[in-house]
Amino acid sequence: MKLKQGSFLWYLYLDKLYCLLSVRNVKALVEYFHLLDVHRKKTLNDVLFYHFLHHVTDLKRNQITIVFNMLDWNAVGEIGFDQFYMLVCILLAQENHLEEQFIFRHSRPVFELLDLDGELKIGPSNFHMYNFLFKIKKQQLRDLYHDFDITGDCRLNYKEFKLFTIFSMNKYQESQKAVKEEKAVPEKKCHKL
Amino acid sequence: MEEKPFKVRTLPGPPHPVSPQTHPRSTLGPSLAILSLSPGSGQLPTITPPPSPPPQPGLRPGGGPGNPPPPQPALPFLPNSPRPLASLGVCGLQALAKSSGHRGSGKSSPHDTRNLWTTATQSQPKLNVPLPTVREDSELEGSSVGGKTRWSYNQKAGHDSDGGWEESDDGEDKDSFKPEELDEHALMELEMRRGSSLGGPLEEDDSKTDDEKSSSVSSLNISKHTPHRAYWVEQQSRLPLPLTELMENEALEILTKALRSYRSEIGRDHFLTKQLQRYIEGLKRRRNKRLQVMVI
Predict the structure, then answer these.
(1) What does the entry give for GO biological process (chain A) (predicted)?
(2) pTM higher than 0.80, yes or no?
């Protein structure tokens, strides 16, 4: 998934630590939502939502439908601002390669989004369905169920999922450190020369 | 490491006019708060907004020793949603979104700060955006996030996550003022002081009239260059025009496509289709009006 360059969302950014928008970004987002709220119900219906996502991202129709059903947690056929805000944060996290941090920071909401049936457990199918949003790789999924399925029922409850987010965050930070060190080594060599 | 609960906390300062404490429809008991992003988080250099006047203690809104604490990110929270997931929702911002619907009436309130503007302040040669080009509708009227900071537009180079809209605290306002403006203002003050102190007893009358003239001229010059406080208070809470234009243009494109879907799926005569059509026409008129004013 990529945001359309030059679109309004493309100019927003997430705080790298908390993976949330700043107040000013949110203020702008409120105004943007208000512009799209044609029928003055403080919501976007499925048609408006589809055209919005289709305009600002490269998601396909079936993916947009999946996202809409995921966010319409009240099943009213409309998306309110808080769901809209959640979606924007997810899109920006993916755009800025902050998926691991986002899932770590907001593990509860992400778990509940993945738990479409409300069973408080998520299986591999849940992850596959939303893979285009959260980008959890196949190898990660295998490790996930191998290492964290403590109960052994091939599904993860929230605590198991939380453990997974902590470990994947640690792994991500280690890989970042390794990348920085690799970059630093040739610079040192240049300095010596 | 435990996850922090999502709470929306208010910025220190005067209460928001549409804050839950004042909004009649708000069902939220506890006060809301929004933490804003801390500056200096390693983002790209910013393009500063249209030049601002030299700082004056009496005119700078929010200036003073009591500066707000460093801003932090907004942590949303919706306590009354049936799903705990909705704790990520922004209830305070919902209140804002609700109130924004009331603001779109196009009528100006009696307490509109623009009514406080004098004609003297409307000649602002140093401002890139003349006052008539500021949004004429009342959508953002009365809106104040207690914002003591300004927008600055940061154009992204590629998909760098460090780009985007930034804020600058009042303390950083000085950096955005041009040094020539400051010097000019300081010079004017010096001239005024000199004018009052110069001249012996024999030349007192002449010097007085000369001083009065010079002081009146300099005061006129100052009043021309220093905008009205109410204007700057309102500017602080408004979105920058380039961003507003971008939003409106994009919304128009999206809604035009949506209108085609409406017509094909529910028909041209459906009230929702007509409502959408009227809305799009209204948006286009507003955009054209703004473009015409800018051209002038």
Answers:
(1) flagellated sperm motility; sperm capacitation
(2) no
Q: Which residues of B touch A7 (CB under 8 A)?
A: 250
Q: Mean of the per-residue pLDDT values for chain B?
A: 54
Q: Which two tokens stand for residue B77?
A: 């929270």
A17 CB within 8 Å of a chain B CB: yes
Q: Measured between beta carbons, which residues in chain B are less than 8 angstroms from residue A32?
A: 247, 250-251
Across the interface, whether the CB atoms of A16 and B41 are under 8 A apart is answered yes
Residue A42: its chain B contacts at CB < 8 A? 94, 97-98, 101
What amino acid occupies position A99? Answer: E
Q: Which of B85, B145, B167 minimises the CB distance to A113?
A: B85
Tokens describing residue B42: 């390693």
The alpha-carbon gap from B91 to the nearest alpha carbon of chain A, in Å, equals 7
Could you list the pLDDT tens digit for every one of the 296 residues in chain B? 444 444 444 344 444 444 444 433 334 333 333 334 444 444 433 434 444 444 444 434 444 444 554 444 454 444 444 444 444 444 444 444 444 444 434 444 444 444 444 344 444 444 444 444 434 444 444 444 344 444 444 444 344 444 444 444 444 444 444 444 444 445 455 555 554 444 444 444 555 555 665 666 665 555 555 656 666 655 565 666 678 888 999 999 999 999 999 999 999 999 999 999 999 999 999 888 887 876 66
CB-nearest to A109 from B73, B85, B164 is B85
Of B85, B101, B165, which has the smallest distance from its Cβ to A25's Cβ?
B165
Question: Closest chain A residue to B246 measured between Cα atoms?
Answer: A8
- For chain B, the three-class secondary structure string (H helix, E strand, C coil) is CCCCCCCCECCCCCCCCCCCCCCCCCCCCCCCECCCCCCCCCCCCCECCCCCCCCCCCCCCCCCCCCCCCCCCCCCCCCCCCCHHHHHCCHHHHHHHHHHHHHCCCCCCCCCHHHHCCHHHHCCCCCCCCHHHCCCCCCCCCCCCCCCCEEEECCCCCCCCCCCCEEECHHHHHHHCCHHHHHHHHHHHHHHHHHHHCCCCCCHHHHHHHHHHHHHHHHHHHHHHCCCHHHHHHHHHCCCHHHHHHHHHHHHHHHHHHHHHHHHHHCCCCHHHHHHHHHHHHHHHHHHHHHHHHHC
Chain B residue with minimal CA distance to A80?
B94
Any B CB within 8 A of A58 CB: no
Testing the interface with B: which of A38, A44, A55 to mutate, by most B Cβ within 10 A?
A38
